[in-house]
Amino acid sequence: MSSEKQMQKDAVNPEEEIRSLREQIEYHSDRYYNMDAPEISDYEYDMMMRRLRELEQAYPRFADDSSPTRKVGGKAKREAGVLVRHNVPMLSLQDVFSREEVVAFVEEMREKLDHPEFVVEYKIDGLSMSLRYEQGHLALAETRGDGINFGEDVTANAREIDDVVEELTDAPEYLEIRGEVYMTEEAFDRVNATQELLGKKTFANPRNCAAGTLRQLDSDIVRQRQLSMFIFNLQQVRGRDFSTHTQAYEYMKSQGIRVIEDYRVCTTAEEVWDAICAIGEKRGDLGYDIDGAVVKINDFAQRQMLGATSKVPRWAVAYKYPPEEKETRILDIELSVGRTGRITPTAVFEPVRLCGTTVSRATLHNQDFINDLDIGIGDTVLVYKSGEIIPKIRAVVHKKRPAGTTTFVIPDVCPVCGAPAQREKNTADIRCTSPTCPAQLERHIINFVGRDAMDMKGFGAVYIEELVHLGYLKGIADIFSLKEHREELIEAGIIGKEKNTDKLLAVIEEAKTRDADRLLTGFGIPNVGKAAAKTLLNHFGSIDALEQADMEQLLAVEDIGEISARAIMDFFADPATKEMIVRLKEAGVNMQMRRPEGTDRILEGMTFVITGTLPNMSRKEAAELIERHGGKVTGSVSKKTGYLVAGESAGSKLDKAGALGIPVLTEEELQKLIEEREVTEHAD
What we know:
Layout: H1 3-10, H2 14-34, H3 42-58, E1 83-85, E2 94-96, H4 99-112, E3 118-124, E4 127-134, E5 137-143, E6 150-152, H5 155-158, E7 174-182, H6 185-197, H7 206-214, H8 219-225, E8 228-238, H9 245-254, E9 264-266, H10 269-282, E10 290-297, H11 300-306, E11 316-319, E12 325-337, E13 343-354, E14 357-363, H12 367-373, E15 380-386, E16 390-396, E17 421-423, E18 430-432, H13 438-449, H14 461-469, H15 486-492, H16 498-511, H17 516-523, H18 530-540, H19 543-548, H20 551-555, H21 562-573, H22 575-586, E19 607-611, H23 619-628, E20 632-634, E21 643-646, H24 652-660, E22 664-665, H25 667-683
Parallel strand pairs: 2-11, 19-20, 19-21, 21-22
Antiparallel strand pairs: 1-6, 3-9, 3-10, 4-5, 4-7, 7-8, 10-11, 12-13, 12-15, 13-14, 15-16, 17-18
């Protein structure tokens, strides 16, 4: 069967699948390279890229130079540092996933080259950086950026990395080397422990932490977090000759430069595969993360002859190991009660190391999930990480089940208050039926004081649990009455002594001035999160106006559907809500949506999507400009999109906008649109 016929069998609409894959890959590439906040695992990303490459090869008529298969993933960030032009492109590597693909690469090289040698080495999971030395002095450190033209100058931060050598003792006229900045497991655990202590968000994995740290504007933070670096390639040299990769490594080691550890030189496909397997067996014992093994030609002249595509060199491939998963034993299954009364089971198991972090807990979701996998306390399970962030249980190893182990059953009473627990009709959720359950109250208050709602910094869960337990908090309105119990709180030391108590009371007092959308977010109405709350209050202007809105008025608000509208009406119809709002008003809590200085509504009702690299502002700055004038910014192009604001390398979103007939604006045209509407508004 021909390649195209086979692909036709697999893809009903190849053009649509190609378009969809390009859009998804662009989105996830941006999350990974530019935002350091991936949502899917490397394996899931690699599989999408592989599928796209197969489709493009089978259907060459859909070829596109802007496809993610033809360019490096990231973009240079102006906000991260001064942009610098690459002397040598910092390309990606071609990924392979099987022994057959590795053997095919080796055999291809042996056909094209005379007795080639292969170097097999670790592929470190970090952030790529090049170092330029002039007359032996470190002159510049740059990130990969867009990989082809520009990177970011991070020299000041690079000097804070112990593995970066600043002076060479036996130096050529010019030397440029490339390596990977990463974070050891020990350093990563230490950083996250500090983040938790300070009440700040922890990092998902060492790679994200390393990438975010290297782009810090404050070099002191870089020094404190103790980044590491391995060098993996000679980019360019003047004033000295090196014939092979390993010869360049030996020179670098003589200068105190830290190169990739335990690399192997091979000549046959069998030797290469054995080296890859040996690296795979060491993955869990290295003290840092690797996401594959690199196979590269040793001889520089042979590399030069083979050259590169616009995205990858032809003389190297990266073998990607299958997703990491490990066996562990379930020690207990804990039950927690959420803000809505939902009971959630969580497996507690013997700690295992996955993707750079130690994990010991994973959600079991609900009784259906437990039944499907047949999970019981004492079972041995396979644990993996979804998106390399969230630990999950894949399966039970039933052959290792201890005698007498049975499938866990969530009890029919609340684990917190003892009230009856019932399964909701047509759902898998089991909920506590008591509206006064302390766990629900605690979670509700934690949500109310949280960063996305009233943002009462320092009002931690420990204080809330104790205040609820002692009867000081029976609802969120009681938060603003705590000042009446100041002396008692100080005497009991619930929050601390006088200084800490007064500090928290001051935070509560200051929170009264928050905009009304934060208050609405804090109410915890089902289906009304941060974004919906802002949309609603921008529309109605106040909590009072929202409270009086009927179904028709609520449905007229963009992105508010019937379920959300019904939940809002039910919430405000509840007598307990009415009493709470009266008390909040008496306490002086703001109920109005204030319009920040310099804002207006001239773009109200317009929806924008921003893509590509704009000449004078980041996408975030462009989004803030649009929102400041009342417009809405979304992440994907649809029939509801009013305008696409497009910069350089706009990609698939530009194609989709063209197909849907959506007007496309440059940054300059966006500014002009705003100016014209301002003139019209003033004239009116």
